[in-house]
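Researcher: Structure for this, please.
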Amino acid sequence: MIRKIMDINAFWNTIDQARGAAPGTAAPDKPSASEDALNSILSKLPITEVQDFGRHFNDQLIRLNRWSVWGAGYVIAGGMSDDSFHYFRSWLIGKGKSAVELALSDPDALGPYVTEEDEENGVDNEGLEYVAVGILEEAEVDDPRDNADTYADDDPQGEPFDEDTVAEQYPRLAQQFWD
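Model: Predicted structure, token format:
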């Protein structure tokens, strides 16, 4: 039997579809992916692809586990605990590849990705991470995160930000969200 796989491009296309954006477009005005839409998409796929999706999601959480990303989230949200930072990273993944790449290269430029709805409801998408996990549990298949060498909540990479001077490190975000 040939194993169906989901490569990273198919992962991002699935995220775009679950957020109502055309595949491969930045579309910062679109919301973070919907749990319900993602569940609808993933539940129609072979379980091996759902495993791959879960693995890619976890890999992105790990990539985003940086103090520089946490600092940006801190400014956007007006403070951010370690749990909130985890859910912020899920929100970023739900915003699509361009949001993730921007968060990694220039987190101070994330302002356009925060919609009015995000400002009202918060920049977290906790449940998005658990959609694939739920499908895998229902199918009685192992969660790919269980055998990972690194974990999404290991210590962040880079230099920690200082809460007292974080606005100086992220002046564009501070101007947008703190003024």
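Researcher: Any notable elements?
Model: The two ends are 59 Å apart (CA to CA). The chain has a mean pLDDT of 92.
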